[in-house]
Amino acid sequence: MRFTVSVALKYLVPKWRQLSVSIISLVSVIMISLVVWLTIVFLSVSHGVKNKWVSQLLALNAPIRVTPTDAYYQSYYYKVDSLSSTSFYTTRSLGEKLQADQSDPYDPLVDAELPLYFPLADRHSDGALKDIVKESWQIIQNLPGVTVREYETALGNLRLNLIREVPGEGVEETCLSQLSYFTNVDPENKSFSNLILPPSLEDLTKLLSSLPQQALFSFFDYLNVNQVTTKSYESPLLPSLYPDQGVLKGCGILIDGELIKVVVPQKEAGLPALKLHYESKGYSVVETSLSFKDETLQEDYPYVTLEGGMPWKASVLKKSLPSAISYQDVLLKLTTTIQGLNFEGTAPLRYFDVTQTKIVKDSPFWAYEGSIPVNGLLGDGVVISKNYRENGVRIGDTGYLSYMATTSSSTQEQRLPIYVAGFYDPGLIALGHKCVFVDPKVTTSLRGSLSITDRNLGNGLNVWLKDSGQAKVIASQIRQQLEKAALAPYWEVQSYHDYDFVKPILQQLESDQTLFTLIAIIILLVACSNIISMLILLVNDKRKEIGILLAMGATKRQIGSIFGLCGCLTGILSGFIGITIAIFTLRHIEALVNLLNKLQGHDVFQSAFYGASLPSEISWSAICIVLVTTIILSLIAGLVPALKAAAVKPTETLRAD
Question: Residue 44: its pLDDT value, please?
């Protein structure tokens, strides 16, 4: 074996007199390396995209859903509630069925006689009514690694009032209305918190402006204000901020020769630009000076303002909170430097824009880790899709949820006050854009307004697994157990692979991976065919040496193994080169994507499908498959030259030479 390896390595070392063999060998290595590189990068990215899809899907939906069929809704077990005083003559949800003391609430001595067309009860052999929900729940719950939860989804109209302050124009109010699905967050869904987006600065500012007086004090226990700036349309220089002493330069604004105000820039070098700005608006501008002594302005100017956007370090003066009527009255402790003078003092928040905050800890005012505020001062919190944020909605925007409810005399609109408590990223799930997450009591209130016939919505059971990869197996086990208990007709069991709104996408991703893998193998086969040419040339070039080796006692198997090993080593070398380049590419994939974006002039990979960034996780399974395939194909490619080398006859070769 050592002899075979040493000779094979000797033959693979490029030599100048074997230029044609060396060139073909180099081309073979380059081509195989490129194919290996591209295959691993594509399979890793596509595998990452699929995993991202699945993780987002499982953050919004359980791995398995068990939903009632028409047979359930047409059964005696379900319909009898509408004729029973114990059930208040209304049908019950699955959760209410689970909590009910009696499987059959009908009492013939109290309730009206059942109609002749009423469905027959499904009973056990002892005559007891089959409790479809409780028995099915117990069957599923008994499976290892499984947790069952009820879910409810209802329809309603989400209406938000967007109140915005427009600089120089006052307050503008618009309304946003959207028919939406409302569903509760399942406490077993540990992944949902990964989809909740952290509050932005605009969100926190809007929430602050929406809070009533009694909530201000506790709000700043969760949030620190670190920096503010003067309003874009200027802010007054309040006496509480005057420096001890010094001189400031400013632009005096004149109307009909009368000085109406003085505007002070942060740096004296900004005076020319500030002057030009006001002159472009038709004002007369003169340069003025402001003198301070003992924290008092020496000149008697009518109005002194600071240019817009001037930054100040800030912190909330908490002793001002109990007396603050609104957020605008909250006092800030401020420090900054203006034209070399140090300014320090207090001023109300109304004159500033908050530009930097820090969340101290999670707050009951906004959603976090699947927790949604309930019965807050602004109403019940709702978590909506990030698409709303992109359209100008902010945390703290208030509104109501409307739905139609039937009373004894008519159908009337009901309204529940709500406010936006957070945003979530629905990813690529189209249904997510219309899904609103609320507290369970909200879906209970909405349940009777409109029925949902979609099997993925409405009322059902979420089945959570310790290992989501076992969804298909567990779903099959649930079907089998329900079949044994004669309960299968009442339920439809689906794993996430079967959900209508994602099934085509998951199948397409799997098809793309399979198709590209087949194409890559074909290209690898073509690339490895160069090894045949290279080794045949090498055999022809080494005929004399082969004859000598055979004459010295080398077997034909050893000669064949030498050239077969040459092909195999070429494949291994090419595979490792391609793998190394692929790993480097995946670790720097963002830089590559940015370069491609610049060359193309737009995004090469749409964020709507691939997310904000391409997955860069290395698929080790893809590396193993590609490397093994490359080695096998290279070995096969080396068989033909190996057989030719083994067929060389030493006597003829030596006689010819």
Answer: 82
CA 42-44-47 angle, to 5 degrees, is 105
Task: Enumerate the H helices of 18-123 as residue ranges.
Answer: 19-60, 70-73, 76-79, 94-99
- From the list 440, 490, 493, the residue with the least C-alpha distance to 143 is 493
- Cβ atoms of 274 and 307 within 8 Å: the answer is yes
pLDDT per 10-residue tile (average), the chain, 657 residues: 56 54 70 83 80 76 90 93 88 89 90 90 91 95 91 87 77 86 81 85 88 84 92 86 91 88 92 90 90 86 89 92 87 94 92 90 81 81 89 91 71 85 78 78 69 63 89 94 95 86 72 77 74 66 62 65 72 84 83 71 59 69 80 73 61 52
513 forms beta bridges with none
- For residues 378 and 398, give the distance between their C-alpha atoms in angstroms, rounded to a whole number: 7
Distance CA 121, CA 111 (A): 17
pLDDT of residue 196: 87
Tokens of 282: 């038709």
pLDDT at 379: 86
- Would you state the structure tokens that stand for residue 370, as one six-digit string? 């699947």
Q: Which residues contact 355 (CB under 8 A, 6 or more apart)?
A: 201, 227, 228, 229, 311
Residues in the chain: 657
DSSP state of 299: S
Q: Look up residue 228 and give its two tokens.
A: 């503010």
pLDDT score of 591: 75
User: In Å, how far are 3, 199, 553, 592, 617 from 311, measured between CA atoms?
Assistant: 78, 22, 89, 37, 41
Residues 6+ apart with CB under 8 A from 346: 240, 241, 317, 331, 332, 333, 334
Q: Which residue type does 20 have?
A: S
Please give the single-letter amino acid code of residue 328. Q
Q: Which residue has the tokens 């029973």?
A: 84
Q: For residue 654, count other CB atoms closer than 10 A to its CB.
A: 14
Strands 146-166 and 411-424, bridge-based pairing: unpaired
> Strand locations in 407-551, DSSP E?
411-424, 435-438, 459-465, 491-495
Q: Where are the domains of the chain?
A: 2-57+504-656, 63-145, 151-200+370-446, 213-359
**Nearest partner of 79 among 494, 492, 490, 493, judged by Cα:** 490
DSSP 106: -
DSSP, collapsed to helix, strand or coil, labels residue 200 as: coil
Query: CA distances (Å), 523 to each of 512, 569, 626, in order?
Result: 16, 19, 12
Q: Which residues contact 196 (CB under 8 A, 6 or more apart)?
A: 367, 368, 369, 370, 383, 422, 423, 424
Structure tokens at 59: 């953050």
How would you class 612 by CB atoms within 10 Å of its CB: exposed for 0-12, middle for 13-18, buried for 19 or more? exposed
User: What are the residues whose beta carbons fall under 8 Å from the beta carbon of 652, sequence distance 6 or more?
Assistant: 547
Q: Which amino acid is residue 634, in one-letter code? A: S
